[in-house]
Amino acid sequence: MKTAHDIIIKPIITEDSMDRLQDKKYTFQVAKDANKIEIAKAIEEIFGVKVAKVNTMSVKGKEKRMGRYTGFRPDWKKAIVTLEGEKTIEFFDGMY
User: Fold this and answer.
1) In a 10 Å sphere around its CB, with 0-12 CB exposed, 13-18 middle and 19+ buried, how is residue 46 labelled?
2) Across 70-86, average pLDDT
3) How far is it, in rounded angstroms, from Cα 55 to Cα 36?
């Protein structure tokens, strides 16, 4: 069985994701085989908040070159988590 920290890999800190914080939407990189229910439970367990909605998307890895050789970065999965209630995730509080 996967733990919550196996499902949630890292937060994604970009301009777009910082703009969404005012709408209580937080962006995370998650395990590729995780579903929305597992992601919601993991966020609730790690941060102690109530999740209203989870949107997921699979992100294709970009092509990268090293001289004349080409390869691809790995594919990954992104989750945008919307919270309900007044509570926020403290990790993101000082960023925007």
Assistant:
1) middle
2) 96
3) 7
